[in-house]
Design brief:
Blueprint (H helix, E strand, L loop, with lengths): L1 E10 L2 E11 L4 E5 L6 H9 L6 E6 L5 E4 L11 H6 L5 H17 L6 H19 L2 H14 L16 H14 L4 E5 L7 H13 L3 E5 L3 H7 L2 E6 L2 E5 L3 H36 L6 H13 L28 E10 L2 E11 L4 E6 L5 H8 L6 E6 L5 E4 L13 H8 L8 H7 L16 H13 L5 E5 L7 H13 L3 E5 L3 H4 L5 E6 L2 E5 L3 H10 L2 H8 L5 H9 L1 H44 L7 H33 L1
Parallel strand pairs: 3-7, 3-8, 5-6, 6-7, 12-16, 12-17, 14-15, 15-16
Antiparallel strand pairs: 1-2, 1-4, 8-9, 10-11, 10-13, 17-18
Helix pairs in contact: 3-4, 4-21, 5-6, 9-10, 12-14, 20-21
């Protein structure tokens, strides 16, 4: 448990938040939300113990373990990716020492019915559960499973960390933290550099494996699927809701409406009181009432509305110059680097006005295809850019190309054309550059601020084909919504490379899936695409989309038909065996869980029990843990067999 009491943080006399108190309980999975600059990352740093508050305190249990993932981190670069992740298990020796000490204490105690003895049993059980999880024969498999889940290939395991980009280095650190199985996970924007499949893997891990979680993320779908409690930081206060993010949004609307009504009533009362004071200030017969009203005004605690409603702000791009009917046409497009083929036989057509998504694992070729479209790199095959196509391109390094000596306002002023120049201040405000922030020099901006500025600069240009590579990584939820609505209303063509499902939902009507050297077209939205993937394996899609074989290949295929049939029968047999194994393990798991629950009910009832029941409880927990690991392995084998069928 973590207890926050009367926390106050201020920078240069500006109060970030004040008198903040709440408790993080076991099994809480908290989404920490609020506008950029509200103090979310600061609060995580205070939880992690790397920053001190101005006043107040954060109390933690002495034996609690914390895993903290910041937005940026530094790896030592003295080892490979796998060696770096293996550092997660360096604490096993310390865990063994703690277990030995607890066993010694138990052997010396005789107060079996005391609360402290039961606490000692609970602590030992927890430590033994952790130790069972880290058995030497399993941790290698855990490392592989976690790295692969986060998008690494086995060939990446022995590569030096220095060879990986910042996003992949973040994944290495995330893998290390997850494998440590800390009591509390503090994650600051963990999905910024993950693809959709890795995000789904992380979602499942956090839902099933995490104990306590405090999460900062601008990915609405991710936090909605993972968290069960939402804490909002707004106007220096916190608002604590014991619900997930979607439900929080509804409750927050009700709170804001109540605040508005209370604010309006208070403003009317203040206005009436001030009128009374002004009217009777100089009348001796009313002096007592006037003084009373003045004191009344001084004592009023002014109501604040948590967030100014800027929903009327809409970013509208200049009309797109008309292009040809088909801005992008690819025929048998291929790209290789030496012996490594990124994609091949890529054929597709993007029509004028379409908004499409490029999705797939990192390294599958999404950005490579974008560079081919931009004619930044050579390729094989045919790639035509349509008549009168003007491309606006946002890449990850776009922010580094800004003129550092210009102010934020001047950067946008030089990029804007026509009527939109009259709304520069509104646009900057919508992208969190309002007021004095608009006069900042580019060179003092953070990486996230530069990215937002580069995005505004790009989207003000009169183009008819927008290509956006991960445009939402540094935008908060409100700003992403503004950008999304602007793109939806844009009358040109849009290609979005993104892992943000919520951002893509309702924005794109065609999905190009990258994987296994292929680029597949899906005529649907992002959630229909994800649902379709659950129903049909990628391997099956590869078969249906495979190029037609020539007659010689067909003849060879016929000659192998009998063998293929026997192979299929054998494969089906293995699948049935795997299904049976999964059901057996599920029955075993249910039995263990029922027996554990019976013992725990007995212990909680206070009934006299002998020492053997604690041993039995520990043995059942260890057996359950082993069965769960076997079940996970069996499921992975079953999925592999299905995909290869």
């Amino acid at each position: 448990m973590i207890s926050v009491q009367n926390l106050k943080v201020e920078f240069s006399s500006q109060v970030l938040f004040d008198n903040v108190s709440f408790v993080v309980n076991k099994k809480d999975k908290i989404a920490l939300v609020g506008k950029n600059g509200a103090g979310k990352s600061t609060l995580l740093k205070i939880f992690a113990g790397i920053q001190n508050p101005t006043s107040g305190q954060v109390s933690r249990s002495s034996d609690i373990t914390i895993g903290y993932l910041p937005q940026t981190m530094n790896l030592s670069d003295s080892c490979t990716a796998k060696e770096e992740v293996q550092k997660a298990f360096s604490h096993i020796d310390e865990l063994d020492k703690q277990i030995d000490e607890l066993n010694v204490q138990l052997a010396e105690r005789t107060d079996y019915e005391s609360e402290s003895y039961q606490d000692l049993i609970d602590t030992l059980t927890h430590k033994n559960d952790l130790r069972a999880m880290y058995q030497s024969e399993n941790y290698e498999a855990e490392i592989e499973k976690t790295l692969i889940g986060l998008g690494f290939n086995r060939t990446d395991f022995d590569r030096p960390t220095s060879e990986f980009s910042g996003g992949w280095r973040m994944r290495i650190e995330l893998a290390k933290i997850l494998l440590q199985r800390p009591d509390v996970l503090l994650l600051d924007e963990p999905t910024n550099h993950l693809d959709i499949e890795s995000i789904q893997w992380l979602e499942n891990f956090l839902k099933t494996q995490a104990n306590m979680l405090v999460l900062v993320s601008h990915d609405k779908a991710f936090i909605d699927n993972v968290t069960n409690r939402t804490i909002e930081i707004s106007c220096g206060k916190i608002y604590d809701y014991n619900v997930n993010y979607s439900h929080f949004i509804e409750l927050r609307k009700e709170r804001i409406e109540q605040q508005k009504r209370a604010y309006e009533n208070q403003q009317k009362m203040i206005h009436d009181t001030e009128e009374f004071i002004e009217k009777f200030r100089y009348k001796p017969t009313k002096s007592v009432q006037v003084q009373s009203r003045i004191k009344q005004l001084e004592k009023i605690e002014r109501i604040e509305i948590d967030e100014v409603d800027n929903s009327h702000l809409r970013l509208k791009f200049p009309p797109a110059p008309r292009s040809g009917d088909y801005p992008v046409i690819a025929n048998d497009l291929s790209k290789s680097y030496g012996d490594h083929n990124v994609f091949h036989d890529c054929t597709f057509t993007i029509k004028r006005g379409e908004k499409v998504a490029f999705v797939g694992k990192n390294g599958a070729g999404k950005s490579t295809l974008v560079k081919c479209i931009m004619h930044e790199i050579p390729f094989d095959g045919e790639l035509k850019i349509g008549h009168n196509v003007e491309i606006g391109y946002f890449a990850q390094n776009q922010a580094m190309l800004l003129d550092e000596n210009l102010t934020v306002h001047d950067t946008i002023d030089y990029a804007a054309t026509g009527e939109i120049r009259t709304r520069i201040n509104d646009i900057l405000g919508a992208f969190m550059f309002g007021g004095a922030a608009s006069e900042k020099k580019v060179k003092v901006l953070s990486g996230g601020e530069r990215s937002r500025l580069a995005m505004i600069q790009l989207l003000l240009q009169p183009v008819n084909l927008l290509i956006l590579d991960e445009p939402t990584n540094h935008l908060d939820i409100r700003t992403k919504d503004i950008l999304k609505e602007a793109i939806k209303e844009f009358d040109g063509t849009v290609i979005v490379v993104s892992h943000d499902r919520d951002f893509l939902d309702g924005l794109v009507d065609k999905v190009y899936e990258f994987g296994n050297g292929l680029v597949k077209e899906h005529l649907c939205g992002i959630y229909e695409f994800l649902e379709y993937k659950k129903l049909s394996s990628l391997q099956e899609l590869e078969k249906s989309d495979a190029p037609q074989k020539d007659s010689a290949a067909k003849t060879e295929e016929v000659s192998q038909s009998k063998l293929s049939y026997l192979e299929q029968k054998e494969a089906q047999k293995r699948i049935r065996h795997a299904e049976k194994r999964i059901k057996e393990l599920e029955t075993k798991i249910n039995t263990y869980e029922s027996e554990i629950k019976e013992i725990e009910n007995l212990l909680s009832s206070g009934t006299n029990t002998d020492q053997s029941i604690y041993t039995k409880h520990q043995e059942l927990n260890e057996a359950l843990e082993n069965a769960m690991m076997e079940w996970e392995t069996a499921n992975e084998e079953f999925e592999t067999l299905q995909n290869n069928d």
